Amino acid sequence: MFKLINDRSKKLFEEAKKVIPGGVNSPVRAFKSVGGTPVFIKNAKGAYLFDEDNNKYIDFISSWGPMIIGHAHPEIIKAVNEQSNNGTSYGIPTELETKMAQLVVSLAPNVDKIRFVNSGTEACMSAIRLARGYTKRDKIIKFAGCYHGHSDSFLIQAGSGASTFGIPNSPGVTKGTASDTLLANFNDISQVKRLFNEYKNEIAAVIVEPVAGNMGCVLPQKEFIEDLRKLCSLYNTVLVFDEVMTGFRLALGGAQEILGIDADLVTYGKVIGGGLPVGAFGGKEEIMNFLAPDGPVYQAGTLSGNPIAMSAGYAMLKHLSLNKNIYESLEKKTSYLKKGMEEVMQATNLPFQINCLGSMISLHFTEDPVIDFLSAQKGDNTLFKNYFHGMLSQGIYLPPSAYESYFLNDAISFEDLDFTLKSFKKVVSKI
What we know:
This protein is an alpha/beta fold. The chain has two domains: 7-60 and 324-428, Alpha-Beta Complex (Aspartate Aminotransferase, domain 1); 74-322, Type I PLP-dependent aspartate aminotransferase-like (Major domain) (Aspartate Aminotransferase, domain 2). The chain is 38% helix and 15% strand. The chain has helices at residues 7-19, 74-84, 95-107, 120-135, 161-164, 175-179, 189-198, 222-234, 254-259, 285-288, 307-322, 325-346, 373-376, 381-393, 414-428; strands at residues 41-45, 48-51, 56-59, 113-117, 139-144, 181-185, 203-208, 238-242, 265-268, 279-283, 353-357, 360-364, 396-397, 406-407. The strands form three sheets. The chain has a seven-stranded mixed sheet, sandwiched between helices. The longest helix has 22 residues, at 325-346. The N and C termini lie close together (8 Å).
């Protein structure tokens, strides 16, 4: 139906496959779920990506969330360049780490102390280890379709990549590890209650994406998220909010602020790195003090608190804290996009659901409301594939998986959105 000229990307992909497994360093990039050849990006600026074949795209993934103020933002670039001139890594404490921690603690609800790591996976893995050490319990509850990184404990019906490839239980994950991970359906509090009744004093933590982004954008029902908090308090279980996607994106206080729910531990990533590899986990002082060197729970990282990453993250969070109107701007743009997409879809015979919160949005080709992983899986993947490639050929870069949220960045203009909606109308009329 559509044809994209990507000769250079094709050549680069073939070269990459010879030396990189699957030709990519993160599976979703390989376009396995949508088919075709992934585009190779050469550079980016503001709202736009430019590939190796000189195609220009409006970017709706924002590096999977962190580029909230657009690519190559002058303040971020300035901070990184200045720090680079002073050295790239020390493995020794810096004042910047403390300043970054102070800023996060001042902005994030219910976070007394924070520990920086190098990725969202590392943050979630460390938070679970801490919760287990703090409670002296082994089991955790996670939710089908929620993705918390590629640590063994979490590759039990994970979303996104795992669902795309049909391997919810990854080879390499031991039966013992899997047995300590209890699974429930997102938005189904009755299942959580049954697990607590069955394993009363064995559950160390409940980990959840408060707004799921790895089965598309899926919102929590009010009673579900409130009851999770109540159950964890009742059973002295640590409630972990995985805010790697939502932290500092939905609001300065993330999902905790939006939903009005305090977690015991929170994991961060994406935005707090300003585009560089950064993760973090933080929470109540009582729990955080169990971390080494003060406590018995070991966690370490040579590059944790890396000065370049800290400089980018500090510049990003400082900019957001001084320009809180960005969140209102992003919400207006996302609502505008949603309204326009709904108008187009309503004029077709195609099944659809559009989920949206703040600057996160996703389109599902299904008639049923998408409230969990099971309902997300009802989407028509053939329609999605045609839709994805159609939009790509029009210069719109969307997540190459039906199980991923879109992330808007504030560099996207209303003119960009009008162009997107015009392209959207053209594409859906032909799929």
